[in-house]
Design a protein that fits this description.
The chain is α/β, with parallel strands linked by helices and 359 residues long. The chain contains twelve helices and 14 strands. The strands form three sheets. Strands 3-4-5-6-9-10-11-12-13-14 form a ten-stranded mixed beta sheet, with helices on both faces. A two-stranded parallel sheet has the order 1-2.
Length: 359
């Protein structure tokens, strides 16, 4: 059986070349491209200005992506989380988050699993499976664009903060970012890429000429404390990471966001705030405080609002701005890797049921 052509893997010139091989005029490729990305349709039947014989050939020889919805949950706050199965049965997560200011943000994955081993992260606890291709990364955003289009809305923002470390899958992640901009029409300043702090890749990213936002998962302000949460700190300690960030800021003129998962009694104290303020003083930076999403593999709990308020006030004394990220989808395990972890647990439990236990 001939393998179907995934149209999301093709550039616009490659799509034009394919249709030229089918002896079709050049404008047909422009029409198909517009249906793929401008109109974000989910089926060939929706490409209504194409002749029937072309739609039938596309159905027979091509496919609109390779992701299959394995599980889906909707939150009372409007957040939608999907667990997708890849053709090789790996599972990845994507989240669509609506905000009151009319932003519609897709949080997408760049890897199946993650090799970074961050102790408080559900994805880090499950280990690394494989990198995603640029097409698999982009398709996650396209799927949410399709949902929003059907509702008369549009996707406005994309964050590469789902499963995996984008800079561990550097080439595919950067290609996906460029395609989100050129193909799906997401503005550069509406795209954020998050990293645990891979120093060589941060320096490389500074030379890409992209105006997207860079976020660094920091979470602790000393090497000893950070290494217990993020093992990568042993390879790239804070001094090296901050030097790379300064270089990035100097080359791009862009502010860096430092993500801080607020963990009650661990990194939300006044002492920690002073240490962080001293670390970031004078850096063009913003701290994004994220109340911890509890996971089964980590016993921490989120900070209380008063501790967070005090933390922000102390940072302000050092000239470091900080805000609290709005928590979305807490009731549906919207945190990175949580839905996959719960689904896998249920599957394993089902697999251990003995025949005598049934009926």
């Amino acid at each position: 059986m001939t393998e179907l052509i995934n149209l999301y893997t093709l550039t616009q010139p490659e799509l034009a070349e394919l249709l030229a091989q089918w002896n079709l005029p050049r404008f047909r490729a422009k029409q198909v491209w517009a249906w793929l990305y401008d109109n974000a349709v989910g089926s060939f039947d929706e490409m209504t200005d194409l002749p029937t014989n072309l739609r039938e050939r596309l159905k027979a020889e091509a496919t609109l992506g390779t992701l299959t919805t394995h599980a889906e949950r909707s939150s009372k706050d409007g957040t939608l989380k999907r667990l997708y199965a890849l053709p090789d049965s790996q599972l990845i997560e994507s989240v669509l988050m609506p905000y009151d200011d009319h932003r519609r943000t897709a949080c997408i994955s760049t890897q199946a699993g993650c090799a970074m081993g961050c102790t408080f992260c559900a994805t880090g606890q499950m280990g690394f499976a494989r990198h995603l291709s640029a097409a698999e990364i982009v398709e996650q955003a396209v799927r949410f664009a399709q949902i929003l289009r059907a509702e008369g809305d549009r996707l406005s923002n994309v964050v590469l903060m789902g499963m995996g470390e984008p800079f561990h899958n550097y080439d595919a992640s950067v290609e996906a970012i460029r395609r989100l901009m050129s193909d799906l029409g997401i503005g550069a300043r509406h795209i954020t890429v998050s990293t645990v702090g891979l120093v060589p890749q941060i320096l490389r990213f500074a030379d890409e000429g992209l105006q997207v936002k860079l976020a660094i998962s920091l979470h602790a302000a000393t090497d000893d404390e950070r290494a217990t949460l993020l093992p990568i700190n042993k390879r790239y300690p804070l001094a090296d990471l901050l030097d790379a960030c300064r270089t990035y800021i100097e080359k791009t003129g862009r502010r860096v966001t430092f993500e801080w998962a607020s963990i009650a009694g661990k990194n939300d104290t006044a002492e920690q705030a002073h240490t962080l303020g001293e670390l970031l003083q004078g850096v063009l930076a913003h701290v994004n405080l994220i109340p911890l999403n509890p996971t089964g593999g980590y016993d921490g709990r989120p900070s209380d609002p008063e501790a967070t308020k005090r933390f922000i006030e102390i940072l302000g004394g050092y000239g470091v701005s900080a805000t609290v990220r709005v928590r979305r989808g807490i009731d549906i395990d919207a945190g990175c890797g949580q839905l996959k972890a719960s689904v896998v647990r249920r599957q394993r439990a089902a697999d251990t049921v003995l025949p005598s236990d049934i009926g």
